[in-house]
Design brief:
single chain, alpha+beta, 5-stranded antiparallel β-sheet, 3-stranded antiparallel β-sheet
Length: about 250
């Protein structure tokens, strides 16, 4: 729900930017508030529609999937349709807003080259922002994968217990339990106490082997013997699944 609201916020901000930009470029030159408002109100949906259609339909469906012929064809059709809509806008501004008198129409409002340039400035500006966002996400995934491989290559969890550094092999760990002010690492042969925080321990464990199912439990997936919507069993021990962790646990298991 929060993710959807966050996305909606970005779309509303983009809409506001488009309206303000178009008002600054075209609105101030009319000298007529009503005419300027009407003109910008009609131009804004055209800009928004083309930007969204190009960046959220054509690019992911054809360009990213390497269907270059279809992408070129539909991009050309998009350009043609957008030019046609802008031409209709110029005619509309001449007939209804200018009352068949070009002197009453703002000079830049009938400039089709300017209209086209502004429209595709938004289109390719949005494309650039989305590209950088995707590159940033890819870079984050690469770093996370590299960190994961680094953790897997170590294969040992090092913790401080009774003022001594202890190394525990990953495959011997069944689950880790967090209590009031300390944790217990449950292994096949013994239990090891440490004053470290479970959140700090989680960062040092490979995510493809260990999964956090509760604010108090991290378990080794290799030792799971049974599971349902509420509990995961490791041998004779039933560990509860926290409500906020259930979607992630369901996906991983």
């Amino acid at each position: 729900m929060f993710g959807k609201l966050k996305k909606l916020k970005y779309h509303l901000i983009f809409l506001l930017i488009v309206i303000v930009a178009l008002s600054l470029i075209f609105g101030h030159s009319w000298g007529n508030v009503f005419a300027a408002f009407t003109y910008v109100s009609i131009l804004t949906p055209i800009v928004i529609s083309v930007v969204y259609f190009f960046n959220f339909y054509l690019v992911p469906r054809y360009l990213i999937t390497r269907k270059y012929l279809q992408f070129s064809l539909y991009s050309g059709l998009t350009v043609a349709v957008s030019l046609l809509l802008e031409s209709y806008l110029v005619v509309f501004s001449f007939i209804l807003l200018g009352h068949f008198n070009f002197h009453k129409v703002a000079p830049n409002a009938s400039d089709t080259v300017l209209l086209f340039s502004v429209l595709y400035l938004f289109v390719f500006g949005t494309s650039t922002i989305l590209m950088f966002k995707q590159l940033s996400a890819a870079h984050h995934k690469i770093n996370a994968y590299a960190e994961e491989q680094k953790l897997k290559s170590v294969s040992l969890l090092e913790i401080i217990s009774n003022r001594k550094k202890i190394s525990i092999q990953y495959d011997t760990i069944q689950y880790i339990e967090s209590l009031a002010d300390y944790i217990i690492v449950h292994t096949k042969g013994k239990e090891i106490k440490s004053n470290e925080r479970i959140s700090a321990i989680q960062k040092r464990l490979p995510a493809d082997t260990f999964i956090r199912i509760h604010r108090s439990f991290i378990l080794n997936k290799a030792h799971i013997t049974a599971s349902n919507n509420d509990y995961i069993s490791i041998g004779d021990t039933d560990l509860p699944i926290g409500r906020s962790y259930r979607p992630n646990v369901k996906q991983l298991l």
